[in-house]
Amino acid sequence: MPNVAVVLAAGLGLRVGGDTPKQFLPLDGRPVVAHSIDAFQQADGINEICVVVHPSWRGRMQAIASEYL
Fold first, then answer.
1. Cα separation of 52 and 8, whole Å?
2. Burial 43-53 (b: 16+ CB within 10 A, else e)
3. Quick one: pLDDT at residue 44?
4. Residue from 27, 38, 25, 29 nearest 65 by CA
5. Could you read off the pLDDT of 11-45 as tens digits, one per residue?
6. Whole-angstrom distance, CA of residue 68 vs CA of residue 9
7. Which of 18, 31, 47, 49 has a CB 3.0–4.6 Å from the CB of 2, allowing a cystine?
């Protein structure tokens, strides 16, 4: 049975303010969500990673995946 990590990145970032949700803000040169996904990629026993993202940010998430993962 596969182990699936679910990364919840669907928030709109309203409490953080600004135009960009916090999962897309830079942290050490990469978006926060890229760090989260990378941690699961490195974890033993994780077979799949599912990223949940708001439909408005789907294209941006795909771009992040292409560039950083």
1. 5
2. eeeeeebebeb
3. 94
4. 38
5. 988 888 888 899 999 999 999 999 999 999 999 99
6. 16
7. 47
